[in-house]
Write a structure and sequence with these properties.
Layout: H1 3-16, E1 31-37, E2 40-41, E3 51-53, E4 59-67, E5 73-84, E6 87-100, E7 104-112, E8 123-133, E9 138-147, H2 154-178, H3 186-210, H4 218-237, H5 244-247, E10 255-261, E11 264-270
Parallel strand pairs: 3-9
Antiparallel strand pairs: 1-2, 1-4, 4-7, 5-6, 5-8, 8-9, 10-11
Helix pairs in contact: 1-2, 1-3, 2-3, 3-4
Length: about 270
């Protein structure tokens, strides 16, 4: 399989995995909460003010749960996750036991172990903070986290892999151009030059995320990838030698007809 086909297959798989960044379940009737992670309010965790997660230190989580319903509610776990392009990078969940009677408010503080994040992610990552009850219902709040992990984490190595694949695709296309081996068909030529364009778009997306510049949410990364792909496809489609169908109307057509007359057989040529 060629480099261009490999990168096209990879991008197709990522597009299929591009599900919404979080699926918020309907909150349990009468239950609400406020929470902080390392002193930062979960409700305010955005791209401008992300939750700072340092894997080298344990993180303190404080939560206040209010039950305005008619039945007691027991919170059994608290979770924090991060996703990129629909893929889960990390999912930390801590078991707790917080029983809140009807019409009451209760608080809980605990240490969340996020040491594994050092090898899983780095940079800005979108995800969610969730509170799960013993009844199986879940309150989900979207958050943006800034993970101070290693560049050699799974996320960092995935980005490095994209860089290598993109370079190989660009070299493959460059050699085809230098040797005059681009397909004559315009559409096939556009597809060939589109592959490194998609790779460049994804490398840019991962780089900006790892450098904590922006969060590659669904609409953002899809639009960015399509823009680079479209530009490189157009470059291949509208440049280079025209294909045979383009040249057909510009060349004279010579017609040679054989005919059998009354006095013999002969030929007649025309244009």
């Amino acid at each position: 399989m060629s480099i261009n086909k490999m990168i096209a297959a990879s991008i197709g798989a990522l597009l299929l995995l591009a599900t919404p960044m979080w699926a918020s379940a309907a909150p349990e009737s009468g239950l609400s909460y406020t929470a902080t992670v390392a002193g930062q309010n979960v409700a305010d965790a955005s791209e401008a003010h992300p939750l700072v997660l340092d894997p080298k230190h344990q993180t303190t989580v404080e939560i206040t749960v209010t039950n305005t319903g008619r039945a007691p509610v027991t919170v059994e776990s608290i979770g924090l996750n991060g996703k990129i392009l629909g893929l889960t990078l990390f999912n930390v969940r801590t078991a707790v036991s917080l029983a809140v009677p009807p019409g009451k408010t209760d608080k809980l503080a605990f240490k969340m172990d996020i040491s594994d994040l050092d090898g899983q992610a780095t940079g800005l990552v979108a995800g969610s903070f969730s509170v799960r009850t013993s009844a199986g219902q879940e309150l989900v709040n979207p958050v943006v986290s800034k993970v101070e992990g290693s560049l050699f984490s799974v996320y960092g190595l995935f980005g490095l892999g994209l860089v290598i694949i993109t370079i190989l695709a660009a070299v493959d296309t460059g050699l085809a151009i230098a040797r005059g081996r681009l397909p004559e068909n315009r559409f096939r030529r556009g597809l060939m030059t589109m592959a490194p364009g998609i790779g460049i778009g994804f490398v840019l997306i991962f780089s900006l995320s790892a450098l904590s510049i922006w969060v590659p949410t669904g609409p953002r990364w899809i639009i960015s990838a399509l823009l680079f792909a479209g530009a490189c496809f157009a470059a291949g489609y509208f440049t280079g030698a025209p294909d045979d169908s383009d040249e057909l109307d510009d060349q004279p057509v010579e017609v040679e007809a054989n005919f059998e007359g009354r006095h013999g057989i002969g030929t007649e040529a025309g244009t």
